[in-house]
Amino acid sequence: MTVFGGDERRQHETWEAMDLLDVPHEEWTVPHDRRDIFRWMEKADDGEVTVWAPMVEEGGHLDHNLVGWAAADVFGDRCRFYATYKRGHGRTRTDNEVAPEPDWYAKKFNAMSCYVSQINHPQMRPWFTTDWDREFVA
Hints:
Layout: E1 2-4, H1 8-21, E2 26-28, H2 35-44, E3 51-54, H3 62-75, E4 79-82, E5 85-86, E6 90-91, H4 104-112, H5 116-119
Parallel strand pairs: 1-2, 3-4
Antiparallel strand pairs: 5-6
């Protein structure tokens, strides 16, 4: 998994979450030249890893869509997509349910708990509910 950096605190929270999940990760800053995203993904591609990326959707977050397009292009059929949100429309819903494995709920809760800056942000707090079942629909 690769992570695009935000502010320093958010970067720290993301690294902490990835370490808890034991997920290989890199951090890239948001580039001035968006083609760099494709180059970085190509460089990181080992030819075997399955990659999860944001689902590309009309009206979706521009950065999420860019990462989704790049991942689909670079990783092809090894790329899986997860739903995020459309601006002003909340969570995206699909009919593609991912059956969670028994330990996923605890792992997700622990990883999400790393994002204190987001949990305490009034606009982000609703994303940190304990309604975990809906989180496995991608």
